[in-house]
Amino acid sequence: FVCSCFCLAVLGLLCLSPTEIQQRSPPSMISLAGGAPNPNTFPFRSASFTMNDGSTFSFDESLMKRALQYSASTGIPELVAWMKKLQRDLHNPPSVSYSPERGQMDLCVTTGSQEGLCKVFEMLVNPGDNVLLDSPTYSGTLAALQPLGCNLINVASDEHGMVPAALKEVLSRWDPADVHQPGSTAPRLLYTIPNGGNPTGASMTTQRKQEVYELARLYDMLIIEDDPYFFLQFDKPWAPSLLSMDVDARIIRTDSFSKILSSGLRIGFVTGPAPLVKRVELHIQASTMHTSTFTQVRCVSVWFSPSCRRVIEFYSKQRDAMMSSADKWLKDVAEWHAPSAGMFLWIKLKGIADTQQLIMEKAIEKEVLMVPGGVFMIDSSKPCPYVRAAFSLSTPQQIDEAFRRLSLLIREAQ
């Protein structure tokens, strides 16, 4: 992030498409600037797409030229406007109460939510900082944070996500009055996955979110609300987000369409206080330049609503199938809580101190694949009795057979 603002501004100009440059210039302007290639050289002229419901839509030659060209780092204007409306409709963040210093809510498109997460971490985390996060947590978050040289501090969680009492106990090491004093080591950042968390499948209750948010206010922490499974909540009404409670601009939220539309499309977005989102945008300008224009043009806003309904119905049935098989085969040898969102079941094996060898050796020999729980812990060398099972890809029949094999392995190892 230590970049010249002037150079980044110039880079931003160079990233504009010819159409965008022309729109920002007087009609008499002759532009020899910019570095965009001539769209007439692109090899693709048109494309047609068929949806699952049989409907079709096409990219004509004009739209295809735009889809294959450079675009603004923040995202193409139509998509950004659609996403901002989506966030207002879903979360109604109280941005009118934000202080002038922290700015209003803003948003930028990222190449999946993982890119947004990594750029937010690089922006906010310095070596030696104390960062709070759920235990266990997403292994990709651990992989992004550990190289930054920060101290990762576990906060206990259960089937309802992060436990506020545990967070309060961790924070009791610091005096709220001293958090801004020179040399204070008080955490400035808290990371959580509030819905259908990976790996636990846990979803935070509204009450817990409110308690966690108030503790963040007391200790003046920023919260990263990583919510890739928000659109995979099985029951209505959906739980209010931390963003919807954000009265003083301390929530940075990452969203993803990977689970609803396609993981390969790589579309995510970061929402939060404008000054912070702007710096993420500048980082994008200097690194990836922008998310694929082809992916952004029309795709998300056209496909989102029908796909969302269909995907929720699918994963809800998959979850029910896994619950049925777990009750059938594992009730005497394991413990679990039914997830209300996402695509994962977090299983504690009875009488098994550590699942690493059981899952990575014996289970593979029996042709069943799961993930040992240690992968999701800050210290993966410590024994962990948990495994993560995903209900996203396998059929109900395959899930049932996998749990039958797992039950036999557990009984043999006890």
Kindly describe this structure.
The protein is of the alpha/beta class and 414 residues long. It is built from 13 helices and 14 strands. It has helices spanning 5-15, 18-23, 61-67, 77-91, 112-124, 139-145, 164-171, 206-218, 274-286, 293-296, 299-329, 356-365, 396-413; strands spanning 47-50, 56-59, 105-110, 130-135, 151-158, 161-162, 189-192, 222-226, 251-256, 268-273, 334-335, 344-349, 371-372, 386-390. The chain has an eight-stranded mixed β-sheet with strand order 3-10-9-8-7-4-5-6, with helices on both faces. A four-stranded antiparallel β-sheet has the order 11-12-14-13, covered by helices on one side. It has a two-stranded antiparallel ribbon with strand order 1-2. Helix 6 links the parallel strand 4 and strand 5 (151-158). Helix 5 (112-124) packs parallel to helix 6 (139-145), helix 5 (112-124) crosses helix 9 and helix 11 (299-329) crosses helix 13 (396-413). The protein is globular, with a radius of gyration of 23 Å. The termini are far apart. The model is unreliable at 1-15 (pLDDT under 50). GO terms for molecular function: 2-aminoadipate transaminase activity; glycine:2-oxoglutarate aminotransferase activity; kynurenine-glyoxylate transaminase activity; kynurenine-oxoglutarate transaminase activity; methionine-glyoxylate transaminase activity; pyridoxal phosphate binding. This is Aminoadipate aminotransferase.
